[in-house]
Amino acid sequence: NLVFDFSPKFLSLTSFDDTAGKSDFQANGRMDNYLQWWLKDSTLVGTFNLNSNLFDLNELMGPSTETTASAQPAAADTAAMSVMEVPKNVDFTMNAAVKQVLYEKMTLANAKGALRVHDERVDLKNLFFNLFDGSVNMNGSYDTKDKAHPKFDLAYDVKGLDIKQTVDYVETVQKMAPIAKACTGKFNTTLSMKGELDQHMSPVMNSLVGQGNVQTKSVTIEGFKPLMEISNVLKMPQLAKATLQDVNFSFEFKDGKMITKPFDVKLDRMTANIGGSTAFADQAIDYTMK
Fold first, then answer.
1. CA-to-CA separations, 114 to 41, 96, 127, 136, 139, in angstroms, rounded
2. In sequence order, what E strands does the chain have?
3. What is the value of pTM for the model shown?
4. What is the reported pLDDT for 154?
5. Which member of 36, 135, 212, 244 lies 3.0 to 4.6 Å from 191 by CB, making a disulfide possible if both were Cys?
């Protein structure tokens, strides 16, 4: 169902109600200045509002190669992702509220926020959603003024996320903190980060600059090889499976590393001070524990 009104001054999407597979959409909005934009190459201005109960990105993006029925094996997709250029002569704002978003094996609940496209950049404003038993609040930007070196700027506030689920689904966490693969529990974290993207839209890890903080109440570490080796050398088997209480530490990104500032922690009945770094390129670790 669609109601569309227009005049020489504006194009108005008065109402739009649609379903596509399992997904549903309700939208409205308006574009101004469209004749000048078309005739004189000026800026096209628009504002849109989108609401949905279910947004299934997996279904909307189509079946994967593995699930596509074919008599002959499908040819490998050799086309790498390239830089997504943002036009400079549009100024669009979209406000969205979606109760459930399905993406790969992740489910985002109660998603809401605003997206603005302008001046060859995209701004993300107050994006909130529930994920991995916790909540995420994000702000950021993606800038393509320099097509060869697109930039991004990201800040988030995460509360109560499950560590195991986060590591399983977020590859960047595996690169920044390999120890997280051996952890179970929940965490809170804040982060502000800037960096560059390569021509395949992947972060250039050595370009990352930023800082953040991590807090946990009770985290169990089991199967982390460095701690297992230490427990063998020191004849302290309790270190092979350790429970950390009330962890609170700060970190920064610098020179291709995640540098953890020294912090106090209690390993079972032992108090320790830990600090050091993890390299992004090869995940080499260099930590001091007192």
1. 26, 6, 7, 15, 10
2. 2-6, 10-20, 23-32, 44-52, 55-56, 90-103, 106-118, 121-131, 134-143, 151-162, 183-184, 186-196, 209-222, 241-254, 257-267, 270-279, 285-289
3. 0.80
4. 95
5. 212
